[in-house]
Amino acid sequence: MSLLNSRRFSLGSRGLALCGAVLLATACASTSPTADTRAAAAAPTGAPVKVKVFVAAMFEIGQNTGDRAGEFQHWYERYWKGATPVAVPGALQPVYCNADGVCGAVLGMGKVNSSSSMQAILLNPKFDFSQAYYVISGVAGTPPQRGTIGEVNWATWLVDYDLGHRWAPEENKPGEPTFMPRKGYEEYRRFKLNPDLVGWAMKLSADTPLKDAESARKYRLRYPDAAARRAPFVGTGTHMTGDTFFHGPGMSKQAQYIAKLYGADDYVITEMEAAAITLVIKRTHGTDRVMSLRGAVNFDQGHPKESTLQHLDPAPGETAGGFAETVENIALVGTRVVDHIVKNWPTWSVGVPKP
């Protein structure tokens, strides 16, 4: 849920088919190199690139720069303008690196798409990930009881929403959960991210001035929840990874039930990739240096006067707004952490310092 249902609202539900075609055909199309020799010098020429921080986005709307920004564009413009794209067999899009060891790529939407790209990149001999930090970055949804449009959230836990047994509510006792964990998935259905790293992320970024939009401010007022009506902020909590685009108060309660069942923090973000990408990283380098950073562009349920189906397929002008501001907020928050790590690399290269 870097979240396609998030994207459904932010990009306009009736334009989803066109957007999907664009994403499949031209997602994160590379731009022509410029005279930025510092960035271009980072292209691998022999020895592998020593990656200090890898930024993973899931989609770009069009080009990497100069048009409407998706999840990758603000990162690209900050770190890789003019960098030579490095093609990686098995990855959806090329990798870009700068001379400071900051690399990034668009991995694709959904668990299989993104994790297969991450695996290909991690195993490619052009890169040395032995000391790398990871920022899994994208847009998401949030329950109105705990979040708001435009907020940016660092994950404390990653939980896989899909690994278990489910059945129809009418086949259940009224009011009881319709989900049961499946045995055998204990090692990869949840990940507790490094608390020290989360602490650093908040320490460095909690006071970041965030963008907001008038359309988002008006949209929030449709919800009675105090959290939903908040201005954008930087927070933490559990990120729920699911290929199922769940909607409505019932599914939201189930996500919270699963988070608590697994011993995680409150569910605050719904997305589509982070747990799967983290599993790939865990098998090669562990999870101590993994961060998940998401910006909320929609609520996971309609307001009290709106049905779930209306929320799924809003009429023109009824979407949340604030998409452009949110993708900028994500980069504003995330670059503070990336820049700090790179600037203080002698300390960070050996591990996460105590906050």
Question: What does this entry show, briefly?
Answer:
With 355 residues, this protein is of the alpha/beta class. It is built from twelve helices and 13 strands.
Structure description:
By secondary structure, this protein is of the alpha/beta class. It has a single domain (4-28, 47-348), classed as Nucleoside phosphorylase domain (Rossmann fold). It is 33% helix and 19% strand. It has twelve helices and 13 strands. The chain has helices spanning 4-11, 16-26, 37-40, 73-79, 111-123, 195-205, 214-220, 248-261, 274-285, 308-312, 323-343, 345-348; strands at 49-50, 53-57, 96-97, 102-106, 127-128, 133-142, 152-160, 164-166, 179-181, 190-192, 234-241, 267-271, 290-299. The strands form three sheets. Strands 2, 3, 4, 6, 7, 10, 11, 12 and 13 form a nine-stranded mixed beta sheet that branches. A two-stranded parallel sheet has the order 1-5. Helix 6 packs across helix 11. It is globular and about 60 Å long. The relative contact order is 0.20.
